[in-house]
Amino acid sequence: MRVALFITCVNDTLFPGTGRAVVTLLRRLGCDVEFPQAQTCCGQMHVNTGYPEEGRRLARHFVDVFAEYDAVVAPSGSCAAMVREQYPRLARAGDASFAGEVAETVPKVHDLSEFLVDVLGVTDVGAYFPHRVTYHPTCHSLRGLRLGDRPTRLLEQVRGLELVPLPGAEECCGFGGTFAVKNPAVSAAMCGDKVRNVAGTGAEVLCAADNSCLMHIGGTLKRQRTGVRIMHLAEILAATEATR
Amino acid sequence: MSGGTFLGMPAFPRNAAAAVQDSQLRFNLRKATHTIRGKRASVVAELPDWAELRAAGKEIKDHTLRNLDRYLLQLEEAVTAAGGHVHWAADAAEANRIVADLVKATGETSVVKVKSMATQEIGLNEALQEEGITAYETDLAELIVQLGDDWPSHILVPAIHRNRSEIREIFQEKMASYGRAAPEGLTDEPRALAEAARLHLRERFLSTKVAVSGANFMIAETGTLVVLESEGNGRMCLTLPETLISVVGIEKLLPSWRDLEVFLQLLPRSSTGERMNPYTSTWTGAVEGQEFHLVLLDNGRTRVLADEVGRQALRCIRCSACLNVCPVYERAGGHAYGSVYPGPIGAILTPQLRGMGSALDASLPYASTLCGACFDACPVAIDIPEVLVHLRGKARHPRAERLGMRAAGWVFDRPARLAGAQRLGARLRRFVPGRLPGPLAGWTDTRDIPDIPAESFRDWWDRTDGGAR
Ligand code: SF4
């Protein structure tokens, strides 16, 4: 299967390790991973901040880059949800041919855990990670993509890993893209509660399927010197005894 | 308390920042919203057909809104045939004048009110005051808000931001100036507080000849108005006075009596977490000895209806489920929204009804993280995040942001530019300060920024040929 990696601009720039982990993991599972170099950004920041024109241009670019692949995998629930929810809306305000291309491309775009569980049909990816982990199901993974228990089913199969539940897991961490900048006080209050819940689990690692939320929570975890590390789901699933 | 007094408030982020500092407020809000949230979730889970009910509620409302002109005329005909009088009000000023004239025609100088958001939206109490007419709120929470010279902060529980001891103080200090004083030695026991309100209000009900109400629903087919409430005060208000004036937004319509069945299930479960509503009152036209007037209020609603995406906000049945699940409302409190419609629904309804001319109204579509909890909770499936994003697209943006977004768009337009920007960032990574300047300072006040990696993913892929080298 020709799988294209949509790394997302945030991961590309700030979290390249997540991208490398996805490549390692998918190759281990027998996929032929390609990285279309022409990709840039899904346009989420523009659309969600109120710049639909710029967003539409980036959506066109995305469709041009990824239309030819069998499957597109993104290690970001939020960007995958952006493509799935917003692209058809953006296309409706565009021309008919764009709407057609969007309708063909969008169903091929998957978040990593969707791709593993639904397309490849695996939950045991052969990972080894002997740590106490708690999982935060970010809003867009939870209510945008409806990932359900796919990520935790994957984590439960990881050898050595102890998964501890996170109280108030379904509550938003307060990132919300530009919300964290436009409403810093409320955002910080929300993140404060989230961090308290994370620290209370006694986990060594906070895991999620979105580095943006992790960056936000992780920045607070670090500022408060909790010692809890953040890791993207892909990084845990890519870990094996050999990598240790 | 009126929509009018809210204007001129600073923008949402500033209001919210102040509210976040009020630990008592945060405690009260958290406790109350989480309690109702839990009750709602459990009674909703009891119904195996909740998803179908929700879809039916959405469909009925959409159908009605699509044919609003037709159903409104049908309603007018039915109300008139039943002996009532129908008045059409294009905006707040017109509605207030109609009500004031109707009250003056009775020769009375006071009215009792049963909770009506529409009259708060138009600032009716203040408008009546100017004409020498005093309006008395009779809903317990509204009474607390009125006595406390305060603003409502929640759709269903307007005094949600107050705790028991605050209410006791308000009663002791203010009740006497509004009528019967609070009893001696009033404690802050809920029973004692309720009894004090009951005695105070009973005197009011028995002596007032004009009532102003809102309505949860209007039935076009029969000309019937419906009010759902849980104290019985509404029923006293609706039946005792000689003249009843109902001010209702035109979107509150349902085509037929049968449609009510769906909403009598959706509303109580979503709002109070109850299976059934304690008091459901319906009235049609003028009953024996009572004169009935219906004021149909537009006040921006037809403009909202004209917006293809935004119009879904008019499906709202004011259950407040979205407020109770909203993490932003929980921290910011209702007053920060500067409108009688706080929380997620307020964030999409207020800027549509009032326009986005003021700084406050323009900031409301941004008062959300787009987490989607409100959409999931909404019994008529209003896609609040969709409308928020839509309104943001119409908002005026600050210049610096516009430039930043344009610059980002320029970078993202060509992969080579993105790679160049990443390399520049990597080169400068040691110089990134721990505290960022300008609008980004809000981020670094409480968070560390992540380390910028030495090499982007795309450069790694290039250098190693996708990890092969
Ligand atoms: S938007 Fe939906 S959830 Fe919110 S008050 Fe209206 S009907 Fe209830």
TrEMBL record, chain A:
Please list the residue ranges annotated as the Cysteine-rich domain. Answer: 3-83, 133-217
Q: Which domain of life is it from?
A: Bacteria
Put simply, this protein is called: L-lactate dehydrogenase complex protein LldE
Automatic annotation (TrEMBL), chain B:
Q: Is Repeat given among the entry's keywords?
A: yes
Q: Which residues form the LUD domain?
A: 74-286
Q: Which InterPro entries match?
A: 4Fe4S_Fe-S-bd (IPR017896), 4Fe4S_Fe_S_CS (IPR017900), FTHF_cligase-like_sf (IPR024185), Helical_ferredxn (IPR009051), LUD_dom (IPR003741), LutB/LldF (IPR004452), LutB_C (IPR024569), NagB/RpiA_transferase-like (IPR037171)
Q: Please give the Pfam families that the UniProt record associates with this protein.
A: Fer4_8, LUD_dom, LutB_C
Q: Which UniProt keywords apply?
A: 4Fe-4S, Electron transport, Iron, Iron-sulfur, Metal-binding, Repeat, Transport
Q: Does the record bear Acetylation in its keywords?
A: no
Name of the molecule in the record: L-lactate dehydrogenase complex protein LldF
Q: Which organism is it from?
A: Streptosporangium brasiliense
What taxonomic ancestry is recorded? Bacteria, Bacillati, Actinomycetota, Actinomycetes, Streptosporangiales
